[in-house]
Request: fold
Amino acid sequence: MGKVLVVTSGKGGVGKTTTTAALGAALAQAGETVVVVDFDVGLRNLDLVMGAERRVVFDLINVIQGVAKLSQALIRDKRLETLWLLPASQTRDKDALTEEGVRQVIAELRERFDWVICDSPAGIERGAILAMRYADAAIIVTNPEVSSVRDSDRIIGMLDSKTERAENGSRIDKHLLITRYDAGRAQRGEMLSIDDVLEILSTPLLGIIPESQDVLRASNVGAPVTLANQLSGAGRAYAEAARRLQGESVAMTVPNQKRGLFDKLFGRRAA
Amino acid sequence: MNVFKFFRRGGSAPVARERLQILLAHERKASGQPDLLNILREEILAVVAKHISLDPDRVRISMDRGDPVSVLEVDIEIPNKFDMPKTGAA
Reply:
C-alpha cells in the first residue's frame, strides 16, 4: 500500500507545483514508484512543469466520470520509468470533482504506487479540501513571508479537521517545507528566519529550499528541478527532503548554490 | 514605535514575527469557535431529544462574544403536536 501525500499551502505561488514535481522525481530516482496528481482543475500546470503538456489525452475528471480508465489517463515520464502523472482537466470546472470519485481514484492509485503526491490548488475551497481529504501526510509549502505563514496556519487547521484521518480521530502527519529562503537576508533580519517560522507554525520541518534561479530555469524547460539541475541548491535541498520522507535522517542544512565559473565571473543575474 | 526600531536594527523580520504571533493567536481562537458551537449543538440536541422529539434542522445555536460577558443563544423549535396544548403559542 502506497502513501498518499498532499502538497498544500493556502496561498498561491509559493511553490506547490514545483515541489510536487521535484519531490516526485527525487523519489522516483531513488527507485520508488510515484504518481503525481494535479488537483488544480481548470488551472492545471503540473503537466507543464513536468514537460508532459503535449501528451495529455485524458485527465482526472474523465476518470472520475467514467469516460476513461485510470490506465488511459496516466502519463509515464520520459526520463524516469517509475514516475507517472495524472493531469487535471483544463476545461471542466472544479465542481466536477466529487468526494466519492476522488476517494476511488486515490484508493486505486494507492494500490499501484509507492507514493501518490497530490498537488493542491491554492485557496481553501472545495478543490483544496478534496486534494487533502484522503492524504496520510501533508507537506505545507511556506515562504518566509507574513501572508504565506498566515495562510499556512489556516491550512494546518483544516488538515486537522477536514481530512478523513482527522474525522476518524487519527492524525495526519504534517511536514513544513520552507521555500524561497534567502539565508543572507534572514541573517540580516530582513526575512523571517527558519526558527521564526517553526516557532509560529509549530510543525516539524521537512526541508529548506533556497531561493534559486534554477527553479525557473527548470520550469522553462519542463523538467523537475531535481532532474534539470541536481547540483543546484534547490535540486539538492529537494533531494534531501525526499530522503527524509523515506524515513532517512538527513542533517538539516541550507544547501548553497553551486556556482560555476560563469556565475562567479558575472555574478547574480536575474533569471 | 521606538521599541520596534530598537529591535529592528535595519531588519524588518522581528516586526513580521511579532505581527504574525499576535494575529494568529487571535485567528486560532476565532477558528476554534465554530467547532465548539457544533459540539455544543450536538450535545444539547442529544439531551433535549431524550425527552422531546424534535427536528434537528430547527435548532439554532449562536454565540455572541462580548467583553464582560458572552451570550450563548439556543433556539429550539418544538412542533406544537408534542407536549404542548394546541392553543398555546410557542
About this structure: Residues 13-51 of chain B form the longest helix (39 residues).
